[in-house]
Amino acid sequence: MSSATLTRSTAQPAWVLPSRGRVGMFSLIAAESAIFTIFVVAYIFYLGKSVSGPTPKDVLELPIFSTICLLSSSLTIHLAVRALRQAKVGVFGLWWLLTLTLGAIFLVSTGREWHHLIYDKGLTVSTNLFGTTYYSLVGLHAFHVTVGLLAIALTMILTFLRKVKPEHSERAEVFSLYWHFVDVVWVIVFTVVYVIGR
Amino acid sequence: MKGHGQTRILGRNKAGIAVWLIGALLAAPLCCAAPTDPSQIPNIFAPQSTPAHSIFRLSLLVLAITGAIFAVVFSLLAYSVTKFRKRVDDDGREPPQVYGSNQVELAWTVIPILIVLVLFLATARVIHSIQDAPQPPRAIEVIAIGHQFWWEFRYPALGVVTANELHVPVSNSSSSTPTFLTLLSADTDHSFWVPRLAGKTDLIPNRVNHTWIDPEQTGIYLGQCAQYCGVQHAKMLLRVYVDSPEQFNHWVEEQKKPAVASDAVVEGRRIFESTACVNCHAVSGTIADGHFGPDLTHLMSRDTIASGAASNTAENLRAWIQEPDAIKPGSLMPPMQLNKKDMDALTAYLLTLR
Amino acid sequence: MSSESIALSTVGDARPIGERLHDWVITVDHKKLGILYIVYGLIFLIIGGIEATIMRIQLIVPHNHFVSPEVFNRMFTMHGTTMIFFVVMPILFGFGTYLIPLMIGARDMAFPRLNAFSFWMTAFGGVLLYFSFIGGNGLYGAGNAPDVGWFAYAPLTARAFSPGHSTDFWTLALLVSGVGSIGTAVNFIATILCMRCPGMTLGKMPLLVWLNLIMGGMLILAISPLTAAQIMLSIDRYLGGHFFDTQAGGSAALWMHFFWIFGHPEVYILVVPAFAFASEIIPVFSRKPIFGYPVMVAATICIGFISFSVWAHHMFTIGMSSYGNTFFTVTSMIIAVPTGIKIFNWLGTMWGGKIHFKAPMLFCIGFLFQFLIAGLTGIMLATSPFDWQLGNSYFVVAHFHYVIAGAILFTIFGAFYYWYPKASGRMYNETLAKWHFWLFIIGFHLTFDFMHIPGILGMPRRIYTYEPGRGWEIWNLIVTIGVFFQIAGVLAFVANLLWSLWKGETAGNDPWDAWTLEWSTSSPPPDYDFAATPVVQSRRPLWDLKHPEDPDWKYE
């Protein structure tokens, strides 16, 4: 059967389907949410079950500053994408750099917190159930932040090389969905670990 | 439909020949198979205890319902395949193109839901009756601890510790003495399954499980571990000895006694207590107090060794101590590497532990 | 289409063999990747079959010494892991990748490079798993093939009970192939939602496309719990973590929950594409449209959702409360309703039709019969007290092989024969295919019908030998005999595929007089799939073309 007979006639209404990038990114986010859910469930399940060693109340302090940085970076990335859509590549670059900086501050902060926990408080991944579940959950999130920052840094380099154009705003927006996801996960992790769990 | 060669079901003759061939193949071994003592078959459909009976009755309902469903659907399938096959004299026209039918689809949605409802209600009652059965005051309490690859049984109220062969009193209308077991594990997951007495319940480390049996007839009931626990999972066998009340009391009295201390086997006992045996095994009344392996105080009161892997004879005992891997490869008992003289003495000692 | 050209390559491809192979390695074309997935799966089918044969020979008589307990335990672990992750999943992904763009009138998948990446990740995972065999005894004692069972319960997988690296091969191989699976799922979803040709609304897609969309959605949510649990296991084994360390207060049951939250949806992920094949083949060979398309879609969506709520029916014996057991009994029984509806709809499709008994249809009829039985034994297992007896016994092994071999593999065979002409341009040999069918179905029933009986008589699974005198001997003997018939059938199948590549008749575009878009292209389709994007008005665009006086869009 020849496919030539199945052609488009001119009187059809517009055929609009969702964008691939957006659907793909939402699917990826769904998968990642499922992973995080399991780690959060494990964390909650093991609250109060450590046989020995430090408890959350003993050693955890609210990471307010780093949280503000990370959540603000969601705002800055949103502004960056908006600027790019409006063809203001320079403004885009500035907000993008700010996002990178805020994310980096968050990571450094987490690193310092862990240094303190390990060397001053004696809490490692093998200390007890709290240590195992805490470092795994926060670490998984930090890993996702790292991957995101690598992508942001790469884009930053491309921006400096003048390779990033307004027609890339769609891709930047799809990426920003990932970044927003990372922030939403932090809100949940923060609530479960530092608020409810302590 | 465009044809490519003849459209033919494989000739009935060929299928018939195949059936006869298979019949012959199967008949041969059937003729040579040794008859099996039916009481030794751990058949879930030959229950001898209340939990097993409850499950069996429920299973009859389930089988009846599923059997009926099978009969109906299979008939429809067989009918469709024969009645609506393309005939040899087909005119090549397409049959009426039917897209669906709301009434029919509604019917075959509602009826299964009703069937599920009936099944579920019947099931919920049985779950509750077995799992939430209260423990009567006269029940025998046993703590079963699963090990790689043997069973430890403790009777805390009676002061008895034994291994692999569980003795319980018969429990019927004249004397109701069910046995309630607490299930623990010393290492990995195991599962306690004696099909004619109850469904299986797992033994999971860091978790306390419970099960119960009330065997109504004396005899020996076979089972084995039913959760893969490592290399010798297959030989972690179970024997439940259901005794008459007198037999059971006699057994308890014997088990409570400390180990027989016979002067004739002093040498063997010295060997036992000065080699690695005492690291794993306990013999009450002596310095041996290891808990990694079975308690040997009344070793010779048991019919089997190595959790059912071999019968308890002098020869097998020697073989087991000398080379456990020959009987149960991968078990955690190490070969003791004794010379012949020491092995003779040691075996003689063990044989006195009634 | 020149009949001398070797099928599967483009017409008159006279380039040197090195270049043609290189093409296959670097390809991002969905058709080539589909075939790579399928061939990969077939190779592992043979390997997994060898593992099964070894086990069955060991079990043919009690106290047999064909293999040691260590080897047997590796066999059942590898057989299960291989068949699920490196046979059925790749073959199903392969068919999906090949067919979805063709059925929706698209040029390729949404993310062709991701498609290639996913395939190679899956492929590497399988190689990594099998590398574990080499790792044993030599190579600095790095370990051997995993022997912890395909669901790798804790704490058997802890360092203390599984020293060496065998468990790690299992963990890493599945982590890697899991990444590939998620990639494939993302690709399926994006392709199906974003690349359909004009006129093909969601309600007009072929059922195969719908069911792969649902499968993709399930994959996205189901693989991640396994990935998470494996990361936790690795943290336990290498960083001293305590997720499943019962000595430190960890929970063995937690692993079971996480694993089965993956594991149960996983088996539905395996069966839904099998439903898809049946839903394409049965209508064409009954010469009627699928009966009740909207309900078929709705029932499958229900199955997708409910499958995430039944997982602990694999854990009825671990000592959950009576409320827990009751809940999972309910959900496990409820899922039988949409599943049963689908069987009725397939029957309704055949009813009043004109059934052509070609190989694809024979296998689908076998599927219907066997899936019915599998579903019914599933209901028995859903009844949790009954499961306290039947669980972890050979009854369960018989049940799930009835589903995976009796239902899924049968539709896969049907799909092979149905789409082989499209992919290769050649017809397979119908007589040899019928030999395959009859040999295989006889072997299947010899093995898996009688396998239920030892389970009822108290024979647990995963045992390398069994005691004589328990009444199990004769059944094990019959079960093993059936294996050899199945081997013969599979050999006939492979021989048919290969022989027909060179000697089969030219197939033409549409040998089955079918109705979905892939049959409008040449066989094999050109690299670009469609010269012009098709426009459709109904679920069966080719029916509309062939029957302009009575098109589908007048009725639904």
What features would you highlight for this structure?
heterotrimer; B: 354 residues; alpha+beta; Immunoglobulin-like; 2 domains; 3-stranded mixed beta sheet; 38% helix; disordered N terminus; C: 556 residues; mainly alpha; Cytochrome C Oxidase, Chain A; 17 helices; globular
CATH class of chain A: Mainly Alpha
How many structural domains does the protein architecture of chain C include?
1
Instruction: Report the portion of residues of chain C in β strands.
Output: under 5%
Write down the Rg of chain A. Answer: 22 Å
- Proportion of β residues of chain A? under 5%
The end-to-end span of chain A amounts to: 69 Å
Q: Any idea what the shape of chain C is?
A: globular
Looking at CATH, which topology of chain A would you report?
Answer: Four Helix Bundle (Hemerythrin (Met), subunit A)
Element order of chain C: H for helix, E for strand: HHHHHHHHHHHHHHHHH
What class do helices, strands and sheet pairing of chain A give? Answer: mainly alpha
- The beta-strand count of chain C equals 0
State the CATH superfamily name of chain C.
Answer: Cytochrome c oxidase-like, subunit I domain
* SSE pattern of chain A: HHHHHH
Q: So, the CATH homologous superfamily of chain A?
A: Cytochrome c oxidase, subunit III, four-helix bundle
Uncertain segments of chain A of ≥5 residues (pLDDT<50)?
Answer: 1-5
CATH architecture term of chain C: Up-down Bundle
Q: Give the assembly state of these chains.
A: heterotrimer
**Mean of residue pLDDT of chain A?**
93
Strand count, sense and barrel status of the largest sheet of chain C are: none
What's the number of domains of chain A?
1
Task: Give the SSE map.
The complex is a heterotrimer of chains A (198), B (354) and C (556).
Chain A: H1 20-45, H2 56-59, H3 64-85, H4 89-120, H5 129-160, H6 169-196
Chain B: H1 12-32, H2 50-83, H3 102-131, E1 140-147, E2 150-155, E3 160-163, E4 165-169, E5 179-185, E6 190-192, E7 201-203, E8 209-213, E9 219-224, E10 237-243, H4 245-256, H5 266-274, H6 277-280, E11 304-305, E12 310-311, H7 314-322, H8 324-327, H9 340-351
Parallel strand pairs in B: 1-5, 4-10
Antiparallel strand pairs in B: 1-2, 2-3, 5-8, 6-7, 9-10, 11-12
Helix pairs in contact in B: 2-3, 5-9, 7-9
Chain C: H1 17-26, H2 30-58, H3 69-104, H4 112-134, H5 166-194, H6 207-239, H7 252-286, H8 293-306, H9 322-334, H10 336-350, H11 359-382, H12 384-390, H13 394-424, H14 430-450, H15 452-456, H16 473-503, H17 541-546
